[in-house]
């Protein structure tokens, strides 16, 4: 028991000494008593068992009880000591935390003394930690989570640059420093570093000196880049570029300047101070730069032995001047060509009958031609002042040269939609003065509108007249009794009238589909199937060359006869006409037969007269001869009664002989067998010979003959015997119809191409219904005449005059007399005969 106690004491002492080592050895101190207790328990159990004779189970229970009591005591003591130490440590920890808080606040105050944002990523962690003034990098409607979406607060290019820099920092630990500008226009600095296994990005706004320094660095960098870029550009530019000092010495020249001045190199050009411009040009340039800050002129410069045009630009700088010469030869040539083209276009447009007006994007008149001015009657000075479109329309409206509109403002606004259109528009204006004007508005590529005006009054009038004419022609064709069909150049029926369908017994539906001529032929063959005729019609319709009119006569199976005509039309079509001439053909056949019968009868009459006249002449000649023989005193005296009878016989036989001769002459002329014996005809002698033949009648009827011959009338070529016979018959006819104590006048005058004979009497005249019959054979009108004749005198007159190539005219008034006029041609060199 004492041993156990001693062991426990030693254990406590050990634990107490161990506890003094501090809180760090607390766990080990607690563990050691436990082990000792186990060992003590084992020793104590053995001692008690040996000393008191207890069994091991009893000894174990007793030892366990003592051990638990000792552990409890030790634990209580240790707990108290731990609490005391923990209280002290907590106080020290609170003091350290307070110090750290103060230090942290001081560092935060220093860190965020200006607007900035810290973004950190731990290694292997994609979730960033964000602190600072997030309003610096966030729009008002944004959220902290959108800070890493750089495109929400940075422009596209800086945002992409920021994304690449952050990715390189997190993946490779590459630091960066960027000066950027936000979408709101704020200048910021973004710095990235890898610290303690973390990627940290600091974003702060640049202000004050740092901002100015950053901007200065940026400007310097930009200026340096621009300078290098400009140097490279100037060196590679194809135009001569140079710079000079205030003294005028060449300080810079590019390769193009060296080539233009024929220098060996840039150094050579600078050392030799080669000049591009002539002396007078340099003088003018220097004077211009002294007066102004810039110089611009188009100058001729000789480059490589060739004279070219250059646009020279020079600027006055602080340390001298700089210039550039741009080759404008092609531009000048193109400008001159363009100017010539524009002038040619203007002259061409001025020759147009259409009015042209061009308005620019500001709706002001930039061009017009003379036709435009004449069309609207506008003053040239007004048009030359470049008026706007609205002003011109207002002036035209004031002079009532625009269509009447209920809402002129809306009409004008609709017209001006052409300035915003992409397609042309066409209008037709009907003006108050009766004119019709076609208006085409065409938008220009460079802005503005081109107006094209055409006076279409005549065109519309012609169109209306053409339309009316077409309708009239259509109605005319539809109402023609003649069948008409028009076939196009392709052989198809383009037009037909109802008479065509009726004549060939065709239905309108069969022709509405524009059938081919072959189809029409098949439809018409039941009435007429002559292959040769249809082939001729097909060739007339489909022929391309040698198109001519073709006339055909068709005798159909139904007994009708058609007169067909094909007429080529100018457009390549062919007109076919069919006329039913059945009745005409029948009448013509009957007339032909009757005419043949009449001609046969007339020929019989002529033959009869011809033969009988010759048979009569022989006995008359015998009778006349014996009458003359008996009247001759040498044959012996006659009694008065015998002499009277013999005189009657002589007169009667002479009259019968004259009648027989006249009939024979007419028969000869009618048979075409008479020929004129042409020769000189003395007009006075011819009239005298004719008058001598009627002297006995003049004396018997107490008729006075008045002869009126134009002085110096001369003669003409003709058959003198027939001319005398004509005049004799005219005088005999006039004497026969003249009353006693009357006067018969015969006159002769010459015109430009003929000799005119006129015989006038004062007889009863010829009734109008008899005028056309007085020249017929055996037509004797004895009313008012003392002598009844056979009616052959005027027939012979007309026959002989017409045989000479002349003509006969009768002028008569009932109760006032009659005048018969005969015109004989002066020239009879072309011999006429009865056959002609």
Automatic annotation (TrEMBL):
Signal peptide: none annotated. This is histidine kinase. Residues 83-110 form a coiled coil. It comes from Bradyrhizobium jicamae. The chain crosses the membrane at residues 60-80. Residues 611-828 form the Histidine kinase domain. InterPro entries: HATPase_C_sf (IPR036890), HATPase_dom (IPR003594), His_kinase_dom (IPR005467), HisK_dim/P_dom (IPR003661), HisK_dim/P_sf (IPR036097), PAS (IPR000014), PAS-like_dom_sf (IPR035965), Sig_transdc_His_kin-like_C (IPR004358). Keywords: Coiled coil, Kinase, Membrane, Phosphoprotein, Transferase, Transmembrane, Transmembrane helix. Its EC number is 2.7.13.3. It catalyses: ATP + protein L-histidine = ADP + protein N-phospho-L-histidine.
